[in-house]
Design goal:
The chain is of the alpha+beta class. The chain is about 40% helix and about 20% strand. It has a 4-stranded mixed beta sheet with strand order 1-2-4-3, with helices on both faces. The longest helix has 18 residues.
Amino acid sequence: MSFRLTRQSKLLKPSEYKSIFNHGKITRGKYWQVMSIKTDQSRAKLGLAISKKVHRLAIERNRFKRLARETFRLNQAQLGSWEFVVMAKQSKTANNTVIAKDLESLLKKVVSK
């Protein structure tokens, strides 16, 4: 499997987000909140919802988006056929590796259920 993050690995349509928001299960960590739903497709998909209410500055929102995309990209082979919407939580500033590890543990927790 390629480690690229292609269009097929992303949630692109509002209807895809809506189905996850309506029927998905929520898993919370210290820095992230992940909504997920099991699908019949062959690959995992990622959607991002980083709110301006949570992180006011664009630089903070972009940092969380970069970390989420990179964490998903590196772990997508182990994530199976799940769709995820990743949201950042209000938190104190932390090291990028700590934030990425928190998301990685949440994604693996969802898949292992």
